[in-house]
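TICKET: design request
STATUS: open
ATTACHED STRUCTURE:
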């Protein structure tokens, strides 16, 4: 698979690690019975070439589409430690119903859910495309792996951590700091956790607790602590860099020192920023196609001189392809590091990680753990409003 969008390649390919859908529940209102049957048939049809087995679910037909009906059906039919996930076919995008389903499944219990809107699934011409996306998403939530990427040499034993903070636009509800950390060598499995803190506050004081828990999970899965830790912190403005370095980085340093006293932690802390004014253009070769027209630089382009800051160790990375507009690069600032790495290794790793976000068969603008952290913080702040069941931490339940 090459390029920045490999969805078409995936359609004819087996997923890297399939998970058999053996014990699951399909909940739908009576008036959508025919659509539910079509969706189930479509999912089975597309799952075969992927190597994913789908057993017949418990089909739970509701007399109406009230929120209470969905919750009661889940409460009665979920079998503790047996039900893999619940599939909910929804008549509309009512936020209160979606939130209630997520709170019940993520907080009151520890069962994965997949929701889909009827008006989206009822498009006959796109049904198989929609079903493909649903099967991919469910496979990832269950712990599967859609594809694998080749990593730069020397990264065995490395934990990648993404950090992002969600703020309520009205500043009425608490902000959410989310941490998502890799927990396997291929960097496809994640540990995910979040905390609530003061509304509107970007800098968090809870990183010691979150990262200690993430490293404990890594130890449980791998039988050893990670040899090095690389953190990508998203959402920080230039005016907050020193505060982040003095406050958040210090928490991480103290956490690592406490785990391995007498040793100097191997750690790198990078700040990513997407909302920037800088734009770059590729100058065509003389006599080439397109004449002298400026073009977007190709994905993978790195700019680390001339326009970077002499006092910082920073670079710009173009990770996506923009066909109809000017591409926006992402700015990376290596705020602190104890690793004896050349700048090119940070650049290559950052670009590689933009290929591993399993909710999109293509590259994304920031390393996948950052985008996962953004999704987790958003779900927590918009829908959950409370801590999830601890068992959910090993699943990408929020994509």
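STATUS: resolved
RESOLUTION: sequence designed for all positions
ATTACHED SEQUENCE:
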């Amino acid at each position: 698979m090459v390029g920045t969008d490999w969805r078409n390649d995936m359609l004819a390919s087996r997923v890297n690690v399939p998970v058999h859908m053996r014990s699951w529940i399909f909940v739908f209102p009576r008036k959508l019975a025919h659509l539910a049957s079509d969706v189930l048939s479509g999912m089975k049809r597309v799952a075969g070439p992927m190597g994913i087995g789908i057993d017949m679910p418990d089909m739970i037909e509701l007399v109406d589409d009230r929120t209470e009906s969905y919750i009661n059906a889940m409460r009665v039919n979920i079998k503790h430690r047996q039900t893999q996930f619940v599939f909910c076919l929804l008549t509309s995008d009512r936020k209160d119903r979606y939130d209630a389903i997520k709170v019940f499944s993520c907080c009151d219990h520890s069962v994965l859910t997949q929701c889909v809107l009827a008006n989206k699934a009822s498009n006959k011409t796109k049904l198989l495309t929609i079903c493909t996306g649903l099967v991919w998403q469910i496979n990832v939530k269950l712990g599967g792996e859609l594809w694998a990427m080749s990593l730069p040499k020397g990264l065995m034993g490395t934990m990648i951590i993404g950090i992002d903070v969600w703020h309520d636009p009205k500043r009425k509800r608490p902000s959410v700091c989310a941490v998502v950390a890799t927990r396997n060598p291929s960097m496809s499995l994640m540990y995910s956790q979040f905390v609530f803190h003061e509304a509107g506050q970007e800098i968090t004081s809870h990183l010691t607790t979150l990262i200690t828990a993430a490293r404990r999970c890594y130890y449980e899965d791998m039988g050893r602590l990670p040899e090095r830790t690389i953190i990508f912190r998203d959402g920080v403005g230039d005016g907050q860099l020193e505060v982040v370095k003095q406050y958040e980085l210090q928490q991480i340093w103290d956490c690592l020192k406490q785990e391995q006293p007498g040793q100097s932690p191997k750690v790198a802390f990078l700040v990513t920023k997407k909302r920037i004014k800088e734009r770059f253009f590729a100058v065509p070769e003389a006599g080439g196609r397109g004449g002298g027209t400026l073009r977007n630089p190709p994905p993978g382009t790195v700019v680390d001189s001339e326009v970077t800051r002499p006092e910082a160790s920073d670079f710009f990375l173009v990770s996506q392809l923009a066909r109809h507009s000017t591409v926006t690069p992402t700015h990376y600032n290596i705020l602190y590091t104890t690793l004896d790495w050349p700048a090119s290794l940070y650049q290559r790793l950052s670009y590689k990680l933009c290929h591993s976000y399993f909710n999109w068969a293509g590259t994304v603008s920031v390393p996948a753990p950052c985008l996962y952290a953004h999704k987790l913080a958003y779900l927590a702040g918009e829908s959950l409003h409370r801590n999830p069941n601890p068992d959910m931490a090993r699943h990408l339940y929020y994509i």
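CLOSING REMARK: The first helix runs from residue 7 to 11. Residues 35 and 268 are 50 Å apart (CA to CA).
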